[in-house]
């Protein structure tokens, strides 16, 4: 993550002298999201939940950002057995992000996630 931030800051410095403005954060997030889509490993992700008693700080930070909420929900669509992604979806439901959940998730069979959307 630190290397990605550093690369982003270098790109930002390079574009400071350019007339064309790039969305550096967007470019970096696109690449990270593509990497997650390609290499997500349910077992390794679920091990995070098994090792901790509470929501990891990095995950809590991701869930505060709309783009990451959508990315995690899209991953949940593809990896419905992942305990970590299920935790994220239920957490978002508990926090009231029902419209985002309904817009992104394609399978309403997880009552823990969709309960708030149905009310």
What topology emerges from the helices and strands here?
Blueprint: H1 2-16, H2 24-39, H3 42-51, H4 57-63, H5 66-78, H6 83-94, H7 98-104, H8 111-118
Main location: nucleus
Subcellular location: Nucleus
GO molecular function: RNA binding
Short description:
The chain has 119 residues and is mainly α. 74% of the residues lie in helices and 0% in strands. Its main location: nucleus.
What do you see in this structure?
This protein is mainly alpha-helical and 119 residues long. It has two domains: 1-39, no CATH class; 41-119. It is 74% helix and 0% strand. It has helices spanning 2-16, 24-39, 42-51, 57-63, 66-78, 83-94, 98-104, 111-118. Helix 6 (83-94) runs parallel beside helix 8. It is globular. 14% of the residues are buried. The model has no long low-confidence stretch (mean pLDDT 80).
């Amino acid at each position: 993550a630190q290397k990605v931030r550093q690369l982003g800051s270098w790109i930002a410095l390079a574009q400071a002298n350019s007339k064309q403005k790039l969305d550096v954060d967007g470019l970096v997030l696109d690449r990270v999201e593509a990497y997650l889509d390609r290499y997500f490993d349910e077992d390794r992700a679920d091990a995070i939940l098994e090792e901790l008693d509470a929501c990891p700080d990095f995950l809590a930070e991701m869930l505060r950002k709309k783009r990451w909420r959508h990315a995690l929900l899209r991953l949940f669509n593809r990896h419905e057995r992942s305990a970590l992604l299920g935790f994220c979806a239920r957490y978002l439901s508990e926090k009231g992000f029902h419209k985002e959940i309904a817009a992104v998730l394609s399978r309403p069979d997880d009552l823990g996630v969709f309960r708030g959307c149905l009310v």
